[in-house]
Write a structure and sequence with these properties.
mainly alpha
Length: about 450
Amino acid sequence: MAKSRSGVFEKSASELLNIFNASLPFDKKLYKEDIKGSIAHATMLANQNILAEDEAKKIVAGLKQVLEEIENGEFIFDISDEDIHMAVEKRLSQIIGEEIGGKLHTARSRNDQVALDFRLYTQKNNIEISLQIKEFIKTLLKIAKENTKTLLPGMTHLQHAQPINFAFHLLAYISMFKRDIERFEDSYKRADVLPLGCAALAGTPHSIDRDMVAKELGFSKVSLNCLDTVSDRDFALEILFNISTMMMHISRFAEELIIWSSSEFRFVTFSDEYSTGSSIMPQKKNPDVAELLRGKSGRVYGNMIALFTVLKALPLAYNKDMQEDKEAVFDSVETALICLKILNKAVETMTINKENMRKACEVGHLSATDLADYLVKKCKIPFREAHHITGSAVAYAQKLGVDISQMSLDELKKIDSRIGDDVTDFLNLEASMNARNSKGGTSTSSTLAQIATIEEWLK
């Protein structure tokens, strides 16, 4: 079977053009989607009496043989076939003969064929990435449920701010990853549209049934406008954006894991299975997994910007520039999946050093705000004045070399005589954490409510 060059050409394409023009080295990943789409197309053509029933059966049987050959490693990919569509069609014609094999392309173009294959791929991976994020959320949730009373310094500007519990901190990341799943799910719904049947750009004169093909392939509807459909890559941009946002969240978490695992913090310890050593310093145990996770965000951002740049200013409809859409998406999808899997394992196997977290809460006067709130509520002092009094208390504590939560009642009363005997109860770190009991707050009871909400959502 000759490659896709019509009789208008008098000379064969140069070998250099074949190499430059070919997408087969990377788009062969779409073989399952291509064969699935072709089976649905052939079935529809027979249903519409465009193909004879026995011809369609031979095509379907041949396509299934091609699938088996590829999955068994018996299929020979030849770069002269240009892309996966021509590679599959050529092998099909070798199996069942060109007379019948050549009929498969009736009422379609490679333009709508590639749009279908690529859309099926992104739809499949919208689901797969969402499932992997859910597995990670479950891991975080398990750790959270065990640490609703574990004190941790809550920070702003990377400075100690207020005492929180470790579960509350993890729930902040769970909330981010929940939004990521919702984005992938929304993208799936928006891209749940069949492109096949649009042919090159303007539809086909054959009496096809696009709704039947949509049903066969699991799409809820067919596309509205063929000119838009064959040139639409919004679904590819969306999965790249969704992955980039998710990787930004992973990068933020990875940065905290790196800090927490340092000698200065020692909040967590990575397992030996997910740590690396130094080529020269035998004592080193490096958080390379977290560092690579942090770095991978730059890679997926680049893929997203690359596709935006490719699509910018393209006239309608299909242009060969759009062949550059797939490698970026393939790379980002594969990066996202491996990152989620290894992050899940690294977090699942790390040790939480609760005592070090607790000790860190005794540095930085985390319950200072509680003194200001106490002066407002108990002593009816305006907040601005209470803020000033609390600042004086912090300065005095620093002179004494203690945390404000460790100051005695006498020392506190030296700051302001209106301070009552019950003030130390409010400055206790656990009491400070649990005082923030408003909806979404860090108290243990509020944290447990947030966990329950996530568990219900996961169902």
